[in-house]
Amino acid sequence: MHIVKLFLFNLLEKSLGIFTKLGINKKTPGAFPIYNFLFKSFWPYKNIIEIQGSKMLLNVHDESYAMRKTFEAYAFRNIHEKETTELFKQTVKEGNTVIDLGANIGYFTLLAAKLVGERGKVFAFEPEPKNYSYLVKNIELNNYHNVVALKKAVSDKNGKTKLYICDYDSGHHTINQAGGLEAYSRGREIKIEEIDIETIRLDDFLKGKEELIDVIKMDVEGAEVLALTGMDNMIRVNKNLKMFIEFFPLLIEKMGGSPEEFIRRLLEDYNFSIYVIPDDYDAKKGEMIKINSVEEIMNLCKREEDHINLFLKK
After folding, report:
1. What pTM was estimated for this model as a whole?
2. Whose CB has fewer CB within 10 Å in the chain, the N or C terminal residue?
């Protein structure tokens, strides 16, 4: 029965792609309810699966198409950003303190919680309410008591801002502006909603404990410059800090920042060694590439849509 459902589900997915090319989409009268019914009927996966040693809840009945696509990706691949995941597993040690910025539904949070063990600690920041609710459910599902989940966005100031909700990808919600969502929509018709959220400076959150952080994973959809500014002291006082950063120049520019200046600060102000993690997203295949200049990394992101994952260490 599972094989039959998987076959029918894959056939449904292929059909959706054909219908989209023909101009039939979720706004076509009657089309989307039918697709929803078929999606739920033929869903071939369990609603709780094990990914990288932790349980994750996949809710096929969630009304959000973007969220269901996220669940489908995890269920189908059983891994996210393969090379980054493997390096993350090699980097995070038992007893470490890890910060996950842009935790989404908790993939790297759960991975970190398992790796650091009971003596370690994980702080997971996720401002979008639906993602946050699944993040908390996944933490509870695994009985991880070493994780603190916060429904806030890390930025350059404490206060409030707008979070713009992306309807085509549950991982692309962004603060302050919707320009990045529009620029990366690739011709999709999109509907952008906005909500009020809280922001916090990491330096203030960690005041008095700045030296205790071992690893930071940062995927904040263009707000990297803002987050970096808000953690300046923490970075300077940590001599062995390691970071995983998704570098997406287009989104940084749409946020009003400079991707070149962002890399310069990491290299020169904070003295990080920067490496491009191979294979994930638009990075070249093969071994990790060490970045020695701003020009080198910008040459790897020549197209507007290019983005890569970086590994940093002091």
Report:
1. 0.87
2. N
